Amino acid sequence: MEIDKIIHEPARLRIMMILAGLEQADFKFLVTTLSLTRGNLSRHMEKLESAGYLKVKKSFKGKVPNTSYQLTQEGSKALAQYWENLDAVRRSGEPLINTDS
């Protein structure tokens, strides 16, 4: 059993949890809700998108560009698996991260 290191990073875990509870969320909402800088949020979103966990939609609200995000089916499954694995680690008493070199 392995903990998904992409999801396990605190900011990305918060992003995944927010998106799991919403159909979609736009960039501005996430920046405000998470209190992250725009650059920091962009970097986390790129990692989640590269992993296949997010779907990105770019559009315009009037003349203003808007980027919105939603979890993919793969992202939803990965988050559910993350919680199962984390709970299994908690129950087993195994170390969360393998420190063997």
From TrEMBL:
<feature type="domain" description="Winged helix DNA-binding">
    <location>
        <begin position="12"/>
        <end position="88"/>
    </location>
</feature>
<dbReference type="InterPro" id="IPR027395">
    <property type="entry name" value="WH_DNA-bd_dom"/>
</dbReference>
<dbReference type="Pfam" id="PF13601">
    <property type="entry name" value="HTH_34"/>
</dbReference>
<protein>
    <recommendedName>
        <fullName>Winged helix DNA-binding domain-containing protein</fullName>
    </recommendedName>
</protein>
<dbReference type="InterPro" id="IPR036388">
    <property type="entry name" value="WH-like_DNA-bd_sf"/>
</dbReference>
<dbReference type="InterPro" id="IPR036390">
    <property type="entry name" value="WH_DNA-bd_sf"/>
</dbReference>
<dbReference type="InterPro" id="IPR011991">
    <property type="entry name" value="ArsR-like_HTH"/>
</dbReference>
